[in-house]
Amino acid sequence: MRVRLWSIFLFLGLLLPIAGILRAGQASASQSYVGSSACKTCHADVWLNFYKNAHYKSLASGKEPPEKTGCESCHGPGQAHLEARGGKETIQAFSLLSPPKSMDACLACHADQFSRFQIRRSSHTQASVACSNCHSIHKPATPRHSLARQQRDLCYGCHAGVRAQFTMPFKHRVNEGAMQCTDCHNPHGAASPAWRMGVRPAMTHTSASGEQSCVVCHADKRGPFAFEHPAVRVDGCETCHSPHGSTNPRMLRRPVVFTLCLECHSGAGNFGRRRDGISTQSGSHNMADPRYQNCTTCHVRIHGSNADPLFLR
Ligand code: HEC
Ligand code: HEC
Ligand code: HEC
Ligand code: HEC
Ligand code: HEC
Ligand code: HEC
Ligand code: HEC
Ligand code: HEC
Ligand code: HEC
Ligand code: HEC
Questions:
Q1: Which of 29, 48, 53, 81 has its CA 20 to 30 A from that of 11?
Q2: In the chain, where are the structural domains located?
């Protein structure tokens, strides 16, 4: 037994240096960087447009080595490809890469920028939507961000149902070009917010201080208020509003305001300031009187108030 172990160690001892020499030899023969100008003759179309590319800028400065900028920063070392006079297998060809592998190639440089949005766990990544589904490095449709199509068409290309929501009578004017999907969403993923128990749905932005993206534009709803309505602060705007569009005025989720309120204000539970759950309206509210059905005619500061705990002013 002991003899056999010895021979195995001896065998490995001889094999490892040999493997090392082989690998080193391979590297020098075919894994060298050749510089972008070597690509010009055969890929003139790609090469001639590259000066417009964001990835070209640092290349032009001449300060960076070829593996950090230029063609080989994404396609890997080009020597073997040159020696074979082309071929897809001799170089990193994105047309042959699986979505995770092609994302790895981009994240080699962009990981720091996107890791705080948890890009590896974003809905897009989990559905195998990779960078090149949205970005086109060589044939971009937009001068900024190198998008494969204009943003609206890009997103609708896969989210046809959302287009219908933005044609409803009450809506944000995305189709009219007044705002964009990325005013509210980050297609790369979402950072954990400082509220809603750290869970933000549907890859929506959070501002630097962790608030929902809505208050960037609707600043009067930002607060903090002396008297907060927990529905706004804790649950978020989309508990009462359909963010894309709605058939109801003010983009509310329900056509009649009081049905929205009574979904929560049912007296259920034993929490809250008076430990009586989410309070029901008091006896003074005559619900048979239509006047009382539009709750926000009296509770006008429904998003929070600095003057009144019942949001009456
Ligand atoms: C930022 C990364 C990146 C850089 C830098 C880059 N490429 Fe590409 N290349 C890609 C991706 C991704 C594709 C796949 C098609 C696409 O998404 O545009 C591609 C596709 C190609 C193709 C296939 C044909 C085509 O047009 O789709 C060729 C050839 C090519 N690149 C050559 C080059 C050359 C030559 C350079 C330098 C001038 C270069 N690439 C620089 C990422 C890059
Ligand atoms: C001698 C000509 C030649 C040179 C020089 C050359 N290529 Fe190619 N390249 C080809 C040919 C031919 C193909 C195969 C095209 C095919 O099969 O569709 C190819 C394919 C590619 C592909 C794969 C495209 C795909 O379909 O995904 C990439 C990426 C690429 N080349 C990048 C480069 C880069 C980067 C350089 C410079 C380092 C370079 N090439 C230099 C001839 C060349
Ligand atoms: C679902 C579509 C989509 C996917 C997938 C996607 N992007 Fe983007 N990306 C966009 C859009 C749209 C913008 C423009 C954002 C804006 O207008 O604010 C953008 C902007 C960018 C920017 C510039 C803006 C910034 O934050 O500095 C970079 C860099 C970028 N993307 C890299 C990547 C990389 C790398 C990947 C893959 C790991 C990727 N993207 C995947 C849609 C996408
Ligand atoms: C070798 C490092 C490196 C790799 C690999 C790389 N990038 Fe970049 N990328 C950069 C740098 C640096 C910038 C910033 C350029 C600037 O600020 O002007 C940039 C900028 C961008 C931008 C925003 C600029 C614009 O307007 O187009 C997008 C989008 C982008 N990269 C996408 C990609 C995608 C997709 C891939 C993979 C196919 C990729 N990058 C691979 C280094 C890299
Ligand atoms: C005004 C902000 C805003 C704009 C603009 C916006 N969204 Fe949304 N979107 C949201 C919010 C908030 C949610 C989460 C809704 C929820 O949890 O009920 C969401 C949910 C989604 C969802 C997942 C839920 C579903 O309906 O399937 C998709 C997909 C989506 N948005 C795509 C888009 C696209 C594509 C665009 C641009 C055409 C866009 N959004 C523009 C705020 C916005
Ligand atoms: C290549 C197809 C494709 C493109 C392009 C695309 N998406 Fe998606 N998106 C998906 C898939 C697949 C999912 C996951 C399944 C689902 O929820 O529908 C998804 C999910 C989403 C979600 C829901 C996230 C969640 O957690 O519920 C939002 C929001 C979203 N995408 C926004 C966008 C925006 C904004 C754009 C444009 C910048 C865009 N998408 C472009 C395919 C795409
Ligand atoms: C980029 C700025 C911007 C962002 C972000 C934004 N909105 Fe808006 N919102 C507007 C504008 C501008 C209007 C005016 C309506 C129009 O465009 O015709 C509006 C209208 C509204 C209305 C209807 C107001 C009325 O008087 O009928 C509601 C409700 C609303 N937004 C809620 C939200 C919610 C909820 C979010 C977050 C999910 C949000 N908004 C994010 C700009 C924004
Ligand atoms: C408890 C439900 C509820 C929540 C949560 C809520 N809203 Fe509202 N919001 C309403 C009601 C009800 C109206 C209609 C008020 C009226 O008609 O007088 C309204 C009206 C609006 C309007 C149009 C009128 C105005 O006051 O400017 C905007 C804009 C708006 N909300 C934005 C937001 C934003 C942004 C958030 C998240 C910060 C939010 N809402 C959260 C119930 C809510
Ligand atoms: C998502 C659930 C939710 C919705 C929807 C909601 N609220 Fe509230 N509301 C609360 C909670 C939680 C409190 C705090 C209760 C407590 O502290 O005891 C509260 C407090 C209040 C208060 C202060 C009185 C009190 O008991 O503290 C008023 C008034 C009020 N809401 C009115 C409304 C009106 C009007 C609507 C409809 C436009 C509405 N709410 C929709 C959850 C909701
Ligand atoms: C005509 C004005 C008016 C309308 C409409 C109205 N309220 Fe009130 N609400 C008040 C006043 C005034 C108070 C404080 C005195 C009281 O309790 O009667 C109050 C108190 C409340 C309280 C606190 C009750 C408590 O026990 O502290 C809640 C919850 C409430 N309203 C919810 C609603 C809801 C939900 C609606 C819509 C169905 C609504 N209100 C419609 C005027 C109104």
A1: 29
A2: 184-215, 223-313
